[in-house]
Design a protein that fits this description.
233 residues; five-stranded antiparallel β-sheet; 5 strands; globular; disordered C terminus
């Protein structure tokens, strides 16, 4: 299922349509769902002509943000409140991304059982393949776990440009917390670029078996210098 979902993500129009119509069918009346989707398609067609061009990974993300913006505006025009329309976008996006992310994380278990290492691998892979320039991440050495700041976010910039800065929280920021929980971790974040802060602060801790948070402990020594270098944040 995760592999199929990952392939489907390469076709934003197809994947988003399927997820959006499924969520619309359970969130609003059939008549309103039809109107919202029809308006969203028209709005997305116009937005597509304005999309900024970056790397392949960022461009793919922006295609989804483009659909998010179109559906959010269509929902608002049909009378949905900001919170309700935003929650709809949040659920649609998590429906789209949870299976591929979960599948990739399970695959890391084949290489190591150390959860801290697996989470770091996932984050590094995301910033190497998808969250590339103009995303900018700074790493901060810390003995308390996975810590870094995002200094530039083109998703926040895109929604601000479109006049819906509040949508960043639903379309992107909120998914970080769900993703962390899927990995058995807790994300602590006090500020975001979308809210006007100079950077987004990411601080992860592990979720222990009894539900309490625990500090990410150092990993055991590895034999090779390559593994040692990989552990250094």
């Amino acid at each position: 299922m995760g592999f199929v979902s990952s392939l489907a993500l390469c076709l934003p129009g197809v994947a988003f349509k399927r997820a959006a119509r499924r969520r619309l069918s359970t969130s609003v009346s059939p008549q309103m769902a039809t109107l919202i989707w029809s308006d969203a398609r028209n709005l997305q067609h116009a937005l597509r002509q304005q999309q900024p061009k970056h790397s392949i990974g960022v461009n793919l993300l922006l295609r989804y943000m483009e659909w998010d913006c179109a559906l959010y505006r269509a929902a608002r025009e049909q009378g949905l409140s900001r919170d309700r329309a935003g929650a709809l976008i949040e659920e649609i996006n998590w429906d789209l991304f949870k299976a591929p992310i979960g599948s990739a994380f399970r695959m890391t278990r084949l290489l190591t059982r150390w959860q801290k290492t697996r989470i770091r691998w996932m984050l590094d892979a995301m910033f190497a393949l998808v969250f590339t320039a103009p995303f900018k991440r700074s790493r901060t050495p810390s003995g308390e776990g996975l810590v870094f700041d995002v200094l530039a976010c083109p998703l926040a910039a895109y929604f601000k440009q479109q006049g819906v800065p509040e949508l960043t929280r639903h379309a992107a920021c909120s998914l970080d917390y769900r993703m962390a929980a899927q990995w058995g971790a807790v994300l602590h974040r006090k500020q975001t670029i979308a809210e006007g802060a100079p950077h987004c602060d990411f601080r992860f801790t592990l979720q222990s078996g009894n539900g309490a948070e625990s500090v990410l402990s150092p990993e055991p020594c590895k034999i090779s210098q390559t593994h040692k270098a990989r552990r250094d944040f």
